[in-house]
Design brief:
By secondary structure, the chain is of the alpha/beta class. It has 2 domains: about 140 residues, 3-Layer(aba) Sandwich (Rossmann fold), CATH 3.40.50; about 70 residues. Helices cover about 45% and strands about 10% of the residues. The protein has 11 helices and 6 strands. The chain has a 6-stranded parallel β-sheet, with helices on both faces. Helix 10 links the parallel strand 4 and strand 5. Helix 1 crosses helix 4.
Length: about 230
């Protein structure tokens, strides 16, 4: 089946959108703080998670918990804890493999942008067996010297691949990611599963509740952005 819409390229965030890493990130944060005898609740951490640089997330957790642990000591412990968890628990989001397979069949270009390093992004996609869907279409903050929620990386990826903003669609799960898409002027959808339905959503970024809902978005007229829930 060919692609009948004007969307030629779909740009995905990685963690929390393609791979189910957000709870692992939050569990690693909980584990890291526990080493410093600071008890945190996993669900509270998940509820307040907004994406972005991990040092910023750790600082926000410190503010909420009223602690002042040296970030230079906390960050490497967090990264160690996350590495241990991801080795055995990191998986694609439910439905992602089917979605990407169908999009490829429609000859839609697929791309990933991330605030993570290129090495980490490649490792995540390799571990979850998603690399072949994207090839070299991987872009990180280091490529432009700026990170989400600034729109630079999103605009750069579209330009590099040769697509106009109107030919692209962006999917992200975090508040910062949605801000990135809106600032870039690229049609943006926010992925939220039922568990994370508490998050604030911009009127400019309708919600999709499952990854496969993206197909109905592509098939719908682009004169409006329906809220899919």
């Amino acid at each position: 089946m060919g692609n009948k819409s004007n969307i030629q390229c779909i740009i995905f965030d990685c963690e929390g959108t393609l791979v189910d890493s957000e709870r692992l990130v939050c569990q690693a944060i909980v584990n890291a703080f526990a080493i410093f005898n600071v008890p945190l609740q996993l669900e509270d951490c998940v509820q307040h998670f907004e994406g972005g640089k991990i040092t910023e997330q750790l600082a926000k957790v410190q503010h909420r918990s009223g602690t002042s642990i040296d970030i230079d000591k906390l960050e490497p412990i967090y990264r160690q804890q996350y590495a241990l968890l991801s080795e055995t628990h990191l998986q694609p989001i439910s439905g992602v493999v089917d979605l990407l397979t169908r999009l490829k069949a429609r000859n839609i270009e697929l791309c990933v942008i991330s605030n993570s390093s290129k090495a980490k992004l490649k490792a995540i996609l390799s571990q979850t067996q998603l690399s072949h869907f994207f090839g070299n279409n991987l872009f990180c903050g280091d490529d432009v010297g700026n990170w989400k929620p600034a729109p630079d990386i999103l605009l750069y990826s579209a330009m590099y691949l040769g697509f106009s903003k109107d030919e692209c669609l962006y999917v992200d799960d975090t508040v910062q990611g949605v801000q990135t898409g809106i600032a870039a002027g690229i049609r943006t959808y926010q992925y939220q599963d039922i568990i994370h339905s508490y998050r604030a959503v911009s009127d400019q970024a309708p919600v999709i509740r499952s990854t496969i809902d993206l197909l109905s978005v592509i098939d719908s007229p682009f004169t409006s952005q329906p809220h899919i829930a």
